[in-house]
Amino acid sequence: MDTTTKQFRKRNAILAYLRQTDEHPSAEMVYNHLKPEIPDLSLGTVYRNLSMFKSKGEIASLGAVGGVERFDGNIKPHVHFICTGCETVTDLPKIAVPEELNDQVTHQTGGQIENCQLTFVGLCKTCKEETK
User: Fold this and answer.
1) d(CA 103, CA 113)
2) Do 49 and 114 share a domain, yes or no?
3) Burial class (CB in 10 A: 0-12, 13-18, 19+), 129
4) Does residue 13 share a domain with residue 28?
5) Residue 42: which domain range?
6) What global pTM score does this model have?
7) 111 and 70: one domain?
8) CATH number of the domain that 39 lies in?
9) What distance in Å separates the CA atoms of residue 28 and residue 93, rounded to the nearest whole number?
10) Do residues 61 and 69 touch, judged by C-beta distance below 8 A?
C-alpha cells in the first residue's frame, strides 16, 4: 500500500470514528481507539488530522475539558452537558438550540452567525450523588 493510500486510510478512519461516536473524544482517545486496527498510526497523525478537520469545519472542538481538548463529529447545532466531576461530555438531543438566541446575537453584533455551541457545565447525576 503506498504512502498516500495509507494517509487517506488513517484520515478516513479518524473522521469515521468521530462521526460515529458520542464520546466527544480527545486526540489520545481517538488514537487509543484506532491504534489496534491501524498499528502504524501515530498520535501526531491524529493531532494533524483533527486540526485539519477542525479548520475545514468537518468537526467541532468543544474546548478543553479537564485541560484536554475534546472533539465532536456532529457539527449540527446541538446542546452539550459537561460533568466537572467525571469529565463526561453528553449530547442533549431533546433540548433545541433556540433560534431566537441566534437572532439576538445577530441583532447585537450586526454579524452573521455560522455556528452555535450551547454547553451546560455541572455535576452529572452519578457525581452529584457521590458528593453527598
Assistant:
1) 9
2) no
3) exposed
4) yes
5) 1-75
6) 0.86
7) no
8) 1.10.10.10
9) 26
10) yes
Contacts of 132 (CB under 8 A, 6+ apart): none
Phi, psi of 80 (to 5 degrees): -120, 155
In this structure, what C-alpha cell is assigned to residue 118? 450551547
Q: Is 91 found in the same domain as 64?
A: no
Contact 51, 92 (CB under 8 A): no
Contact yes or no for 23/91 (Cβ under 8 A): no
Three-state DSSP class for residue 95: coil
Give the three-class secondary structure for 91: strand
Do residues 8 and 52 touch, judged by C-beta distance below 8 A?
no
Q: Please tell me the distance from the alpha carbon of residue 68 to that of residue 28, in angstroms, as a whole number.
A: 9
Express each pLDDT in 55-75 by its tens digit: 999 999 999 999 999 999 999
Give the whole-number percent of the chain exceeding pLDDT 70: 95
8 lies in the same domain as 53: yes
Residue 25 CA to residue 42 CA, distance in Å, equals 16
Counted domains in the chain: 2
